């Protein structure tokens, strides 16, 4: 029973780490810009901070241009200010009722730096996964030391955790591969 609880705790941590990693890499620029690059940016509007996707519609015009259409025309300046402060590599330009952001094409050097950053973030995720596994093993070991689980159950639980972390690492590698492919594709 304690082993099952530790497995569930590891699974929850695994899901949280996968979500964290996905959020980290989605904002990295690839060959094509996406609304995810800007939709979580906080905008100071009417005295409160609101995510951009709560104030405006965001769409792609082409591979390098986003158009942001505020639902409240009075929010244009606040949105443009927040986008400027984020240092995204493109300056917002107010064009009538919309805000346009056009990014230059990625250079080979920028692509290499982005791929390196993806790999650094994936290593952070792997470290977090190992820490979560170690915590689960520690919990099982404490149960074994207390006499609540047998030696065989301890080793079976540890083996199951190793299989789970292998699966998590494979999922992580797949996410890295997909994002890296996006970045290097011209």
Could you list some keywords that capture this structure?
single chain; about 190 residues; alpha+beta; Topoisomerase I, Chain A, domain 4; Gyrase A, domain 2; 2 domains; four-stranded antiparallel beta sheet; two-stranded antiparallel sheet; 4 helices; 6 strands; about 60% helix; about 15% strand; elongated
Describe the protein's architecture and organization.
By secondary structure, this protein is α+β, with helices and mostly antiparallel strands. The chain folds into 2 domains: 2-27 and 107-184, Topoisomerase I, Chain A, domain 4 (Orthogonal Bundle), CATH 1.10.132; 35-102, 2-Layer Sandwich (Gyrase A, domain 2). It contains 4 helices and 6 strands, in the order H-E-E-E-E-H-E-E-H-H. The chain has a 4-stranded antiparallel β-sheet, with helices on one face. The longest helix has 38 residues, at 108-145. It is elongated.
Topology readout:
Layout: H1 2-26, E1 42-45, E2 48-51, E3 56-62, E4 65-70, H2 76-85, E5 92-95, E6 98-102, H3 108-145, H4 151-184
Antiparallel strand pairs: 1-2, 3-4, 4-6, 5-6
CATH topology of the largest domain: Topoisomerase I, Chain A, domain 4
Q: Report the CATH architecture of the largest domain.
A: Orthogonal Bundle
User: What is the CA–CA distance across the termini?
Assistant: 52 Å
Number of helices, counting only DSSP H or I runs of 4 residues or more: 4
> What summary fits the major beta sheet?
4 strands, antiparallel
In what range is the share of β-strand residues? 15-25%
- How much helix is in the residues? 55-70%
In CATH's first tier, which class of the largest domain applies? Mainly Alpha
Round the mean pLDDT to the nearest integer and report it: 86
**Which stretches of 5+ consecutive residues score pLDDT under 50?**
none
Q: Spell out the helices and strands N to C.
A: HEEEEHEEHH
Record the strand order, biggest sheet.
3-4-6-5
Assign the CATH superfamily of the largest domain: Ribosome-recycling factor
Shape, per Cα inertia axes: elongated
């Amino acid at each position: 029973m304690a082993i099952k609880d530790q497995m569930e705790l590891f699974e929850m941590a695994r899901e949280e780490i996968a979500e964290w990693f996905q959020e980290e890499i989605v904002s990295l620029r690839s060959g094509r810009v996406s609304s995810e690059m800007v939709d979580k940016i906080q905008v100071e509007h009417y005295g409160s901070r609101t995510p951009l996707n709560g104030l405006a519609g965001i769409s792609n015009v082409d591979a390098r241009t986003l158009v942001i259409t505020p639902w409240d025309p009075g929010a244009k300046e606040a949105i443009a200010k927040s986008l400027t402060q984020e240092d995204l590599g493109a300056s917002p330009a107010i064009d009538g009722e919309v805000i346009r952001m056009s990014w230059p094409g990625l250079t080979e050097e920028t692509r290499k730096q982005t791929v390196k950053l993806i790999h650094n973030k994936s290593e952070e995720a792997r470290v977090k996964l190992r820490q979560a596994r170690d915590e689960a093993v520690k919990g099982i070991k404490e149960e074994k030391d207390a006499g609540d689980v047998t030696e065989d159950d301890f080793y079976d639980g540890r083996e199951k955790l190793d299989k789970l972390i292998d699966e998590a690492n494979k999922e992580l590698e797949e996410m890295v591969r997909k994002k890296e492919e996006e970045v290097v594709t011209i």
